Amino acid sequence: MITASICTIGDEILIGQIVDTNSSDISRELNRIGVKVVRMLSIGDDHREIVDNLNACLATSDVVLVTGGLGPTKDDITKEALRELSGSAGWRKSEEQYEVIDRILTARGIKMLDTNQAQALVPDKCEVIVNKLGTAPCMAFHGLGPDGSASLYSMPGVPFETRGLLGDVMDDIRAHYKLEKISHRTIVTFGIPESELAKQIESWEDSLPANMHLAYLPNPTIGVRLRLSAFGVETDFAQQVEELRGLLGDAIYGEGEDTLPVAIGRMLRERGAKMAAAESCTGGRISELMTAVAGCSDYYNGSVTSYANSVKMGTLGVREETLAQHGAVSEETVREMAAGVLRKLDTDYSVATSGIAGPGGATPGKPVGMAWLAAAHRNADGEISVTTKCVKFSSSRAVNIERFASNALNLLRLKILAGD
Questions:
Q1: What does the DSSP 8-state code read for residue 219?
Q2: What is the dihedral sign for C-alpha 73, 114, 163, 84?
Q3: Distance from chain centroid for Cα 304
Q4: Interatomic CA distance for residues 56 and 39, integer angstroms
Q5: What's the predicted TM-score (pTM) here?
Q6: Positions in the chain whose pLDDT score sits under 70
Q7: Beta strand residue intervals within 145-299, DSSP E
Q8: Sheet holding 150-155, edge to edge
Q9: Which pLDDT score is estimated for 233?
Q10: Measured on CA atoms in the order 63, 6, 58, 154, is the torsion positive or negative?
Q11: Residue 165 — left, alpha, or beta (φ > 0 → left; ψ -120 to 50 → alpha)?
Q12: Are 13 and 48 in contact (CB under 8 A)?
């Protein structure tokens, strides 16, 4: 299978001044055409470091894709490093890229300087893939590496320019290499911790075909994604997914890029049902997650952020004696919050949260990271049933809130599935 290394060049990436989005964009496209990415590397603005690291990548990968260091300023030194690496004797002018440079500068009312003209100069052993969106060309070098079979593509670091070049770069890779198929299928789960999940499906994972690989991708908001990958053959993974569903049941809520809000929205739409949220410790995070989904107005009526007890009582109808006897963070309170917001916003389902996100606020028996969650359903006869759950986490305030929200949504998902 054809392999690739992706390299970014620039001190700004190494010091965290900018976030590297190019590598993920490039990686997705390489996977799509059947090239396996085996390395991602960031290199500083140092001539020797660039040459040595790129040579090391060319020794172990068929294709090396580089972004950055191609601007008109003195700190952009990639092109000179590539001239040395490729064994080019000198420079030649790319007339096509020069025309693009002239057009862009003219449109902006900027005078052409010698530094701009220099961007059209490329090492004499490279092939130019014209960058129509910017002034720095994409340079392709073939016949590199220890056995002369490797290729290197150098693209500008500006993300939208990189994305604009990827189609042509992928076409060029296809023209120079015989590519095999890479297939992926992702199953999304929630409610089983990663370590427990791995133990639960250990025998199933051990029985996967030799060309198939499983990756665990945990996320506090999404759950654990299980990504199946097969290299070299077209695979639909139908048998493996069916077996996995038999092992995990309702813990599986979707595939691919599904999230809990997407899955819940789909379920509510299928049932012609509506939902609402009553949030205390999550402070509107559930509402934010639900309304991030396009078309959510079909099933999401709204929310009440009832942080203060006065709002719990005055807006949601939580009884004063419930708060006095059990406190805001209690099963009894969250039950009344869920039922109250369901009635207030006239929905079929609701979800509610009340907890201690931290770092302060703990009381005896109620530590930081503890929350009570509730999901409510009103049936056709108007009867309301409420399911509750207590969760305890030990993360930062932000992560605790994220976990409270996602666990509350999963409780609602299971409530909808149960139909009670």
A1: E
A2: negative
A3: 29
A4: 11
A5: 0.81
A6: 74-75
A7: 150-155, 182-189, 212-219, 223-231, 252-255, 275-279
A8: 36-43, 3-9, 63-67, 150-155, 138-144, 127-129
A9: 80
A10: positive
A11: alpha
A12: no
